[in-house]
Amino acid sequence: IDRFPKMVYADQELLEQLDAIFAAGFVFVRDHNDFISGIITNADLTSQFGDLTTPFFQLGEIERRIRQCIGAVFSVDELRQVTRKPTLTSVNDMMFGQYQRLLEDRDRWQRLHWMLDREMFIEHLDDVRKVRNHIMHFGARPLDDAQKNRLAKFLYVMRYLNPMP
């Protein structure tokens, strides 16, 4: 038993306390009246880390899979024409809105040989784009369950369409 456990105040910056939390496994939190109001553990930090990073990893995988599918079917010249970026060197230079523009065209969509409704896919891709923009622009509020669900479902579809090794 630690007779003098680490104490922090609720108004202190959490990031500044990470080393102490990791070293001791926990810290007690005191409120403005100097009463112990809570505890932060390594498990709390791990859970929070997972909540914060999972969408980043999901978006990265979604984008890798979309790029792999597009890169296997379309030439760089076609991608330049669609994106209106003459300096584009590969599918890796594209962004979500440009994937949408590329795949909105029925003829290009058919070249992918995906047995999905094109309009529904584009709509879901746009939802993912919006979630991506929220995350990457550090939206003030965390993702809600519906946004998390959209990412997970779209990633599931992309894994089905492109089972990468």
Structure description:
The protein is mainly alpha-helical and 165 residues long. The chain is 59% helix and 8% strand. Helix 6 crosses helix 7. The mean pLDDT is 90.
Mean pLDDT: 90
* Strand segment count: 3
Based on secondary structure, the structural category is: mainly alpha
Anisotropy-based shape: elongated
Question: How are the elements arranged and paired?
Answer:
Blueprint: E1 7-9, H1 18-24, E2 26-30, E3 36-41, H2 42-73, H3 76-83, H4 96-104, H5 106-111, H6 118-136, H7 145-161
Parallel strand pairs: 1-2
Antiparallel strand pairs: 2-3
Helix pairs in contact: 2-7, 4-6, 6-7
Short overview:
With 165 residues, the chain is mainly α.
Key traits:
165 residues; mainly alpha; 7 helices; single chain; three-stranded mixed β-sheet
